[in-house]
Specification:
Radius of gyration: 21 Å
CATH superfamily of the largest domain: Metalloproteases ("zincins"), catalytic domain
CATH topology of the largest domain: Zincin-like
Number of helices: 7
Largest sheet: 4 strands, mixed
Strand order of the largest sheet: 1-2-4-3
Number of domains: 3
Number of strands: 11
């Protein structure tokens, strides 16, 4: 369990999460909010001092997120619009048909429905992507079952959950929650997120043991993580 509260820092208001971790982690959310994960023993003064020492980095992160949001073009749901699936871009081909259907063929996602209205096209595409996400994630988790069994860890199962700030989370009972939006990322990025959550079965905290295991099962994870963050 972790304790959550708000504190004032040199970088403005921040969310402070205290837990049994051993080090302080500083992160900036896409909305600019500062999130601090600290040991229970860390004093507020020491946390604020470390935030002040990383103030320039925090400002750079906020500027990058602001620029990304400003440059982002709203998605369209009509013929010719571009959408992403497993890191590849596909164009939509929308047609009218009495029976709704979505299929992937070549460089196109074909969407047929009773109407070409964008809200209906979006609903069909979102449903198809969610089905694909569950199938992709389930198949990729299957490869980990033997690894988990050999270490007397629970067999992983997956559930989709849309999370505004996270790609995934895991529980010691073997359940992994994955954001369906992850299916838009490159396949290697999907594998990284799954490996990350699997490692939490053995090491719940982001401590040295966790990162040592992650580096063992997924070498060069840092580069893949950076690729995922840049593509989202």
């Amino acid at each position: 369990m972790s304790d959550r509260l708000s504190i004032e820092t040199a970088a403005g208001d921040a969310i402070l999460l205290r837990s049994d971790r051993t080090t302080l982690a500083i992160s900036v959310r896409p909305d600019g909010l500062l999130e601090l994960k600290a040991p229970r023993s860390a004093t507020t003064q020491s946390i604020q001092a470390k935030v002040k020492a990383r103030l320039r980095w925090i400002v750079r992160q906020r500027v990058q997120f602001r620029d990304m949001q400003r440059d982002r073009i709203p998605l369209r749901y009509e013929s010719g619009a571009t959408h992403t699936y497993l890191g590849r871009q596909y164009r939509l081909k929308v047609s009218e048909a009495p029976k709704p259907a979505v299929r992937l063929k070549g460089a196109y996602i074909h969407i047929a429905g009773p109407s070409k209205r964008e809200e209906q096209v979006k609903a069909l595409l979102d449903g198809w992507l969610r089905e694909r996400a569950l199938a992709q994630f389930t198949a990729r988790l299957e490869k980990w079952k033997q690894w988990c069994a050999a270490r007397k860890l629970p067999a992983p199962t997956v559930r989709l959950l849309r999370m505004p700030k996270r790609w995934g989370s895991s529980h010691r009972n073997g359940r992994i929650l994955l954001n369906p939006e992850l299916v838009k990322a490159p396949a290697l990025c999907v594998d990284y997120v799954i490996a990350h959550e699997i490692c939490h079965f053995k090491h719940p905290q982001h401590d040295r043991a966790f990162f040592r295991l992650l580096s063992e099962v997924f070498p060069n994870w840092q580069k893949v993580k950076a690729r995922l963050e840049s593509s989202s």
